[in-house]
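TASK: fixed-backbone design
INPUT:
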Protein backbone atom coordinates (compact mmCIF):
# COMPACT_ATOMS: atom_id res chain seq x y z
CA UNK A 1 0.00 0.00 0.00
CA UNK A 2 1.35 3.45 -0.92
CA UNK A 3 2.46 5.72 1.91
CA UNK A 4 -0.03 8.32 0.61
CA UNK A 5 -2.81 5.73 0.94
CA UNK A 6 -1.83 5.04 4.53
CA UNK A 7 -1.99 8.78 5.11
CA UNK A 8 -5.59 8.80 3.84
CA UNK A 9 -6.43 6.19 6.47
CA UNK A 10 -4.56 8.08 9.20
CA UNK A 11 -6.25 11.33 8.26
CA UNK A 12 -9.67 9.71 8.70
CA UNK A 13 -8.85 8.90 12.32
CA UNK A 14 -7.45 12.38 12.95
CA UNK A 15 -10.69 13.92 11.70
CA UNK A 16 -12.97 11.37 13.38
CA UNK A 17 -11.13 10.12 16.48
CA UNK A 18 -14.16 8.10 17.60
CA UNK A 19 -13.48 5.78 14.64
CA UNK A 20 -10.18 4.66 16.16
CA UNK A 21 -12.03 1.66 17.66
CA UNK A 22 -12.59 0.30 14.14
CA UNK A 23 -9.35 1.54 12.55
CA UNK A 24 -7.95 -1.96 12.09
CA UNK A 25 -11.12 -3.13 10.36
CA UNK A 26 -11.18 -0.09 8.05
CA UNK A 27 -7.57 -0.84 7.13
CA UNK A 28 -8.44 -4.51 6.53
CA UNK A 29 -11.43 -3.53 4.36
CA UNK A 30 -9.21 -1.25 2.27
CA UNK A 31 -6.73 -4.09 1.77
CA UNK A 32 -9.52 -6.48 0.76
CA UNK A 33 -10.88 -3.98 -1.78
CA UNK A 34 -7.43 -3.40 -3.25
CA UNK A 35 -6.92 -7.13 -3.71
CA UNK A 36 -10.35 -7.42 -5.36
CA UNK A 37 -9.81 -4.61 -7.85
CA UNK A 38 -6.20 -5.58 -8.44
CA UNK A 39 -7.46 -8.95 -9.65
CA UNK A 40 -9.95 -7.32 -12.02
CA UNK A 41 -12.96 -8.19 -9.87
CA UNK A 42 -15.96 -6.03 -8.94
CA UNK A 43 -17.80 -4.61 -5.94
CA UNK A 44 -21.49 -5.19 -5.22
CA UNK A 45 -23.17 -2.86 -2.70
CA UNK A 46 -26.54 -3.06 -0.94
CA UNK A 47 -28.48 -1.53 1.94
CA UNK A 48 -31.91 -0.17 2.85
CA UNK A 49 -33.21 3.37 3.26
CA UNK A 50 -30.34 5.73 3.98
CA UNK A 51 -27.98 2.82 3.37
CA UNK A 52 -29.52 2.37 -0.09
CA UNK A 53 -28.59 5.98 -0.81
CA UNK A 54 -25.11 5.25 0.50
CA UNK A 55 -24.90 2.26 -1.88
CA UNK A 56 -25.52 4.50 -4.87
CA UNK A 57 -23.18 7.17 -3.46
CA UNK A 58 -20.32 4.67 -3.17
CA UNK A 59 -20.80 3.41 -6.72
CA UNK A 60 -20.83 6.99 -7.97
CA UNK A 61 -17.47 7.70 -6.30
CA UNK A 62 -15.87 4.56 -7.76
CA UNK A 63 -17.21 4.67 -11.31
CA UNK A 64 -15.88 8.16 -12.05
CA UNK A 65 -13.32 10.62 -10.73
CA UNK A 66 -13.57 11.08 -6.96
CA UNK A 67 -10.46 13.07 -6.08
CA UNK A 68 -7.91 12.16 -8.76
CA UNK A 69 -7.86 12.44 -12.53
CA UNK A 70 -8.31 9.09 -14.28
CA UNK A 71 -7.37 9.60 -17.93
CA UNK A 72 -7.73 6.74 -20.36
CA UNK A 73 -4.53 4.82 -21.00
CA UNK A 74 -2.59 5.21 -24.23
CA UNK A 75 -3.77 1.89 -25.66
CA UNK A 76 -7.44 2.81 -25.30
CA UNK A 77 -6.84 6.26 -26.76
CA UNK A 78 -5.18 4.67 -29.79
CA UNK A 79 -8.10 2.26 -30.25
CA UNK A 80 -10.57 5.15 -30.16
CA UNK A 81 -8.56 7.14 -32.71
CA UNK A 82 -8.45 4.17 -35.06
CA UNK A 83 -12.09 3.15 -34.69
CA UNK A 84 -13.81 6.53 -34.40
CA UNK A 85 -11.50 9.30 -35.62
CA UNK A 86 -14.34 11.81 -35.85
CA UNK A 87 -15.39 11.24 -32.21
CA UNK A 88 -12.14 10.20 -30.57
CA UNK A 89 -11.05 13.52 -29.06
CA UNK A 90 -14.40 14.14 -27.37
CA UNK A 91 -14.53 10.59 -26.07
CA UNK A 92 -10.97 10.76 -24.73
CA UNK A 93 -11.65 14.12 -23.08
CA UNK A 94 -14.70 12.84 -21.23
CA UNK A 95 -14.30 9.12 -20.61
CA UNK A 96 -12.39 7.99 -17.52
CA UNK A 97 -10.99 4.79 -16.12
CA UNK A 98 -13.47 3.37 -13.63
CA UNK A 99 -13.57 0.98 -10.69
CA UNK A 100 -16.23 -1.67 -11.41
CA UNK A 101 -19.04 -1.37 -8.87
CA UNK A 102 -22.75 -2.19 -8.93
CA UNK A 103 -25.44 -0.82 -6.62
CA UNK A 104 -27.92 -3.65 -6.06
CA UNK A 105 -30.57 -1.18 -4.89
CA UNK A 106 -30.75 0.57 -8.26
CA UNK A 107 -32.51 -2.09 -10.36
CA UNK A 108 -36.02 -0.70 -9.90
CA UNK A 109 -37.83 -3.01 -12.33
CA UNK A 110 -36.09 -6.11 -11.01
CA UNK A 111 -36.56 -5.13 -7.36
CA UNK A 112 -40.27 -4.42 -7.72
CA UNK A 113 -40.89 -7.52 -9.82
CA UNK A 114 -38.99 -9.72 -7.40
CA UNK A 115 -40.80 -8.23 -4.43
CA UNK A 116 -44.16 -8.82 -6.11
CA UNK A 117 -43.50 -12.27 -7.57
CA UNK A 118 -41.08 -13.83 -5.11
CA UNK A 119 -39.76 -12.36 -1.85
CA UNK A 120 -38.47 -8.92 -1.00
CA UNK A 121 -36.05 -10.55 1.42
CA UNK A 122 -34.32 -12.32 -1.45
CA UNK A 123 -34.04 -9.46 -3.94
CA UNK A 124 -30.40 -8.64 -3.09
CA UNK A 125 -29.49 -12.32 -2.74
CA UNK A 126 -30.81 -13.00 -6.25
CA UNK A 127 -28.50 -10.36 -7.67
CA UNK A 128 -25.48 -11.64 -5.76
CA UNK A 129 -26.28 -15.10 -7.08
CA UNK A 130 -26.34 -13.71 -10.63
CA UNK A 131 -23.55 -11.11 -10.59
CA UNK A 132 -21.19 -12.52 -8.01
CA UNK A 133 -18.03 -14.37 -8.96
CA UNK A 134 -15.19 -15.66 -6.77
CA UNK A 135 -12.97 -12.75 -5.80
CA UNK A 136 -15.74 -10.15 -5.96
CA UNK A 137 -16.77 -8.27 -2.81
CA UNK A 138 -20.20 -7.55 -1.37
CA UNK A 139 -20.31 -4.39 0.73
CA UNK A 140 -23.28 -5.09 3.00
CA UNK A 141 -24.53 -1.93 4.73
CA UNK A 142 -26.96 -2.31 7.62
CA UNK A 143 -27.06 0.05 10.60
CA UNK A 144 -28.61 -2.63 12.82
CA UNK A 145 -26.56 -5.46 11.42
CA UNK A 146 -29.78 -7.45 11.15
CA UNK A 147 -31.50 -6.39 7.90
CA UNK A 148 -32.89 -9.66 6.54
CA UNK A 149 -32.43 -8.87 2.84
CA UNK A 150 -28.83 -7.79 3.41
CA UNK A 151 -28.13 -10.89 5.49
CA UNK A 152 -29.48 -13.19 2.77
CA UNK A 153 -27.25 -11.44 0.24
CA UNK A 154 -24.26 -12.07 2.51
CA UNK A 155 -25.22 -15.73 2.91
CA UNK A 156 -25.25 -16.23 -0.86
CA UNK A 157 -21.96 -14.35 -1.13
CA UNK A 158 -20.25 -16.71 1.30
CA UNK A 159 -21.13 -19.84 -0.67
CA UNK A 160 -20.26 -18.35 -4.07
CA UNK A 161 -16.74 -17.18 -3.23
CA UNK A 162 -17.70 -13.52 -2.86
CA UNK A 163 -16.00 -11.79 0.08
CA UNK A 164 -18.19 -9.76 2.45
CA UNK A 165 -17.38 -6.42 4.05
CA UNK A 166 -20.00 -5.48 6.63
CA UNK A 167 -20.62 -1.82 7.48
CA UNK A 168 -22.79 -1.46 10.56
CA UNK A 169 -23.12 -0.07 14.11
CA UNK A 170 -21.32 -0.92 17.31
CA UNK A 171 -23.09 -4.21 18.11
CA UNK A 172 -22.26 -5.72 14.71
CA UNK A 173 -25.51 -7.67 14.70
CA UNK A 174 -25.80 -10.82 12.62
CA UNK A 175 -23.85 -9.36 9.70
CA UNK A 176 -20.68 -9.56 11.80
CA UNK A 177 -20.63 -13.36 11.68
CA UNK A 178 -21.24 -13.34 7.92
CA UNK A 179 -18.45 -10.87 7.11
CA UNK A 180 -14.82 -11.38 6.21
CA UNK A 181 -14.29 -7.89 7.61
CA UNK A 182 -16.90 -5.99 9.60
CA UNK A 183 -16.60 -2.27 10.34
CA UNK A 184 -18.68 -1.65 13.47
CA UNK A 185 -18.93 2.11 13.86
CA UNK A 186 -19.19 3.33 17.47
CA UNK A 187 -22.88 4.13 17.93
CA UNK A 188 -26.18 2.37 18.49
CA UNK A 189 -28.25 5.28 17.17
CA UNK A 190 -29.26 4.90 13.52
CA UNK A 191 -28.59 8.42 12.29
CA UNK A 192 -25.28 8.58 14.14
CA UNK A 193 -24.21 5.27 12.61
CA UNK A 194 -25.04 6.70 9.19
CA UNK A 195 -23.02 9.83 9.99
CA UNK A 196 -20.00 7.63 10.66
CA UNK A 197 -20.58 5.50 7.57
CA UNK A 198 -20.08 8.38 5.15
CA UNK A 199 -16.49 9.28 6.15
CA UNK A 200 -15.63 5.57 6.36
CA UNK A 201 -16.71 4.79 2.81
CA UNK A 202 -15.30 8.04 1.46
CA UNK A 203 -11.98 6.97 2.96
CA UNK A 204 -12.22 3.52 1.37
CA UNK A 205 -13.06 5.05 -2.03
CA UNK A 206 -10.14 7.47 -1.71
CA UNK A 207 -7.76 4.63 -0.81
CA UNK A 208 -8.86 2.56 -3.81
CA UNK A 209 -8.58 5.51 -6.18
CA UNK A 210 -5.16 6.48 -4.87
CA UNK A 211 -3.79 2.96 -5.26
CA UNK A 212 -5.21 2.47 -8.76
CA UNK A 213 -4.73 5.94 -10.22
CA UNK A 214 -2.28 7.81 -7.98
CA UNK A 215 1.05 8.88 -9.44
CA UNK A 216 3.27 9.08 -6.37
CA UNK A 217 5.90 6.37 -5.88
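OUTPUT:
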Amino acid sequence: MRESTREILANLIRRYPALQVCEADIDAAAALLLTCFGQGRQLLVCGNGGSASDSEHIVGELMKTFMLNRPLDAAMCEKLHRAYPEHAEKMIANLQRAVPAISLVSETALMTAYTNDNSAEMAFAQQVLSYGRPGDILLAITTSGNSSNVLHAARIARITGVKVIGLTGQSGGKIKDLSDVCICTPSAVTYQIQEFHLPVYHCLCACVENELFGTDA
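COMMENT: The CA atoms of residues 126 and 153 lie 8 Å apart.
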